[in-house]
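Please check this:
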Amino acid sequence: MEFRSLSVILLLVSLVRAGHTQALPRATLTVEPKWSPVFIGESVTLKCEIQSYRNWRYQWYKGSSRTAVSQSQTNTLTIRSAADQYQYWCRGERDNRPSSSQHSNRVGFSVEAEKPKPELTSSHKGAALIGNPVVLYCKLDQSAGWRFYWTKHTQSPENEIKTETHSYTISSVSVSDGGQYWCRAGRGNPDYYTHYSDALWISITGE
């Protein structure tokens, strides 16, 4: 009889503990940007979402450490200069019940040490005829999200031309369009820039 009573008590305790665990709000961690890899110096933002209840304080962890690397009142954490490949996770705390959330899922991102350098090419192998179009291509084999910037030897860097694609078209070239060109790419907020490409010389001819 005593054995049965003890079994019932243990069963009730296990059910209470299970119910308490299930009652904790779920935390979900996401990372922006979603492209991979990121490069050392790029910004990465983590977002910890807890769907139920309010007034959460957010604890941020990385790797296997149980000690928070950061705490915040907002549910985002921006890593201004990504430099490691640890996995991150989060949880919420608050003053009222429930006083904590579950631990979130873990997210990680691949970090590349070397800043990329694009390759600049042209649709013309030789001199371009006056009045014909010329297309420049800024080739970059590194993930996504890039905007492209174009400059020539007669422009100052602050007057770069920006395009959302990796090509730039001069629809009808003139003699003044001849010269050296460079390109680079940028993405994120604040912008992270690649190296400039090597210079490409565009020759213009009237014949």
User: Anything to note?
Assistant: The two ends are 108 Å apart (CA to CA). The mean pLDDT is 87.
